[in-house]
């Protein structure tokens, strides 16, 4: 494929890959699920592969190839790198790990390709001088860099390397340092080709083969360097190694054997032992079209691997969504039921029990007179205004009793909702972990908030009554009873029904409510009374709902990361689109699987 067509394909893929990157950035996997641990790891790896390799390589297809030299502890990676460039540039030794910071070697003409963050953007850059002063100078420069540790990429121009090819000396893939192992994996994922170094004794170790299997799935060009091979066993080991490589779709990988020989001055391998590797690398660097082919092949394989990884991420995200939906449903259901129960108690007459009923009786007439209404309800309907004769108790007493009863109902329902949610969340491992961030329910603080809202609601009613009676026609009648008294009557009408009362309470409450309703109708008329009662109930429902919304907020906050997280369905669609983009032109990656 020509360079222009490859560049055009890259431009066509960029919008899709930016969508993929945004979707991956919006993944947190906040729940304590086994699948979430795997999902987080897969998402981190996918983001790194996209940012460190796929996007940079597509943006600069003619950039030098990056060959990562990787392998197990003590395999001789740094020794090999020194031999390939003809002088000591990478620290070697018996103390492990020796490669702490990754070192990228490149031809001086290629320096501009690596000074910016095109490749491995998460690593800061430190440029080393082109110093040919030997091992001491190399060791000093590599070990005395500014702070940053393994998060720093050391850059060294090396004239003995061919232009068009860079070598990256990576930390051990099985390093005792966690950060080194992580970084080694990151560097290998950002490589155009791998030079895998192992030894005659360790070529079958499990850890390296996990990475080699990944290379096979990604169709990465791999060369294997078999180091320190004793005389007489080369063919046997080569044959066994080739069998293992073939099982991982890497049977085409060239195998280079370095015999077990004494190291020369500065711990350097004899030049002739690495000459076949040097010629192979020089041939790759000299063939511009061949370099593009390697880039095409590796990018295509990386994108296929990315699509598969996104499928796995989508599965993990789907499990989180399922568990998160169940947890959220328990919150929704508990507080929805609590609101419904509160409003039911305002409609079935239960709030006109006991203290409220007694205070209302005292307000509209003598207690003895109202208590006798159980057998005289019909008479009461004809003499409603007589209830307001004499010297009634202050309307505030009735309002306080109603407020106290309403507060008790709301607080009780909130407590039940809170306990219901906690009980259901404790039934899920993920819910149990989330509850660690939910504070204990504050009954006293909530009760105080409820009291404030009830007072505000009662003020709402007062303003409703004042607004409704603003017409001059109502003024005289309202003054006869007082605005506060009419407001209290409206509260009683709002709570007036007999569904929750029994026995004598039914008659008393019914007469009491009827008294209030007839009074309001006499002042405002039937339609206005119904409108006022409906508005009052609606306002109360809104205030209670807001109270419950604040109470459920700690539970909702625990689930908020799930709301922002990319849905599993979106990830699945992106994975399909990635696969569809590849066959469109096997111009980027011919599927050889």
Number of β-strand runs: 8
Helix content: 55-70%
Described by strand count, sense and barrel closure, the largest sheet is: 8 strands, mixed
- Contiguous uncertain segments of 5+ residues: 1-6, 93-99, 132-148, 366-393, 498-509, 583-593
Q: Helix/strand-derived class?
A: alpha/beta
* Spatial arrangement of strands, main beta sheet: 3-4-2-5-1-6-7-8
Radius of gyration over C-alpha positions, nearest whole angstrom: 40 Å
- In whole angstroms, the N-to-C terminal distance is 20 Å
Order of helices and strands: HHEHEHEHEEHEHEHEHHHHHHHHHHHHH
Mean pLDDT: 80
Range of strand content: 5-15%
**Total DSSP helices:** 21
Shape: rod-shaped
Question: Which SSEs are present, and which pair or pack?
Answer:
Layout: H1 3-25, H2 34-59, E1 65-71, H3 77-85, E2 103-106, H4 111-115, E3 124-127, H5 135-143, E4 152-157, E5 165-169, H6 178-189, E6 193-199, H7 206-218, E7 221-229, H8 234-247, E8 255-259, H9 275-286, H10 288-347, H11 354-364, H12 367-371, H13 377-382, H14 395-425, H15 429-435, H16 443-468, H17 472-481, H18 483-494, H19 504-524, H20 526-564, H21 568-584
Parallel strand pairs: 1-5, 1-6, 2-4, 3-4, 6-7, 7-8
Antiparallel strand pairs: 2-5
Helix pairs in contact: 1-2, 1-21, 2-10, 10-14, 10-20, 10-21, 11-14, 11-19, 14-16, 14-18, 16-18, 16-20, 18-19, 18-20, 19-20
């Amino acid at each position: 494929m020509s360079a222009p067509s490859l560049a055009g394909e890259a431009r066509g893929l960029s919008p899709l890959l930016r969508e993929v990157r945004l979707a991956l950035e919006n993944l947190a996997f906040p729940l304590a699920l086994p699948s979430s641990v795997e999902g987080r790891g897969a998402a981190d790896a996918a983001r790194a592969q996209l940012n460190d390799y796929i996007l940079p390589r597509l943006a600069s297809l003619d950039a030098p190839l990056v060959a990562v030299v990787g392998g197990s502890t003590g395999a001789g990676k740094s020794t090999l790198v020194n031999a390939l460039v003809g002088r000591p540039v990478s620290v070697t030794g018996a103390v492990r790990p020796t490669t702490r910071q990754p070192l990228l070697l490149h031809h001086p003409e290629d320096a501009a390709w690596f000074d910016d963050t095109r490749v491995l953007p998460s690593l800061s850059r430190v440029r080393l001088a082109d110093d040919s002063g030997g091992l001491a100078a190399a060791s000093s420069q590599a070990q005395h860099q500014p702070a940053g540790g393994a998060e720093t990429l050391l850059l060294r121009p090396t004239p003995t390397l061919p232009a068009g090819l860079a070598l990256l000396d990576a930390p051990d893939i099985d390093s005792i340092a966690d950060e080194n192992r992580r970084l080694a994996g990151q560097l290998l994922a950002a490589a155009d080709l791998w030079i895998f170094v192992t030894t005659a004794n360790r070529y079958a170790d499990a850890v390296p083969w996990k990475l080699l299997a990944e290379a096979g799935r990604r169709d990465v060009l791999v060369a294997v360097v078999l180091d320190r091979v004793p005389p007489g066993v080369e063919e046997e080991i080569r044959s066994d190694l080739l069998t293992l490589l073939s099982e991982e779709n890497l049977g085409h990988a060239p195998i280079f054997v370095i015999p077990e020989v004494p190291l020369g001055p500065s711990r350097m391998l004899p030049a002739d032992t690495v000459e076949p590797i040097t010629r192979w690398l020089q041939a790759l660097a000299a063939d511009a079209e061949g370099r593009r082919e390697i880039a095409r092949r590796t990018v295509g394989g990386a994108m296929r691997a990315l699509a598969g990884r996104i499928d796995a991420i989508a599965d993990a995200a789907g499990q989180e969504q399922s568990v998160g939906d169940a947890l959220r449903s328990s919150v929704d259901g508990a507080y929805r039921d609590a609101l419904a129960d509160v409003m039911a108690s305002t409609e079935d007459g239960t709030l006109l029990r006991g203290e409220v009923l007694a205070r209302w009786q005292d307000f509209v007439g003598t207690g003895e007179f109202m208590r006798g209404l159980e057998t005289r309800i019909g008479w009461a309907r004809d003499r409603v205004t007589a209830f307001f004769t004499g010297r009634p108790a202050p309307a505030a007493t009735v309002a306080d009793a109603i407020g106290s009863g309403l507060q008790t109902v709301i607080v009780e329902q909130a407590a039940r909702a809170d306990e219901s949610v906690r009980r259901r969340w404790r039934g899920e491992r993920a819910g149990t972990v989330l509850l660690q961030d939910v504070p204990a329910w504050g009954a006293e603080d909530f009760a105080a908030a409820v009291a404030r809202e009830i007072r505000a609601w009662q003020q709402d009613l007062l303003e409703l009554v004042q607004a409704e009676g603003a017409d001059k026609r109502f003024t005289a009648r309202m003054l006869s009873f007082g605005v506060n008294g009419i407001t209290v009557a409206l509260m009683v009408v709002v709570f007036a029904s007999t569904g929750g009362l029994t026995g004598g309470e039914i008659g008393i409450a019914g007469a009491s409510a009827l008294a209030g309703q007839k009074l309001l109708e006499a002042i405002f008329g039937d339609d206005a009374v119904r409108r006022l009662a409906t508005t009052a109930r609606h306002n109360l429902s809104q205030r209670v709902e807001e109270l419950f919304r604040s109470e459920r907020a700690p539970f909702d906050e625990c689930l908020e990361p799930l709301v922002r997280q990319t849905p599993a369905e979106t990830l699945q669609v992106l994975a399909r689109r990635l696969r569809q983009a590849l066959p469109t032109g096997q111009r980027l990656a011919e599927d050889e699987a």
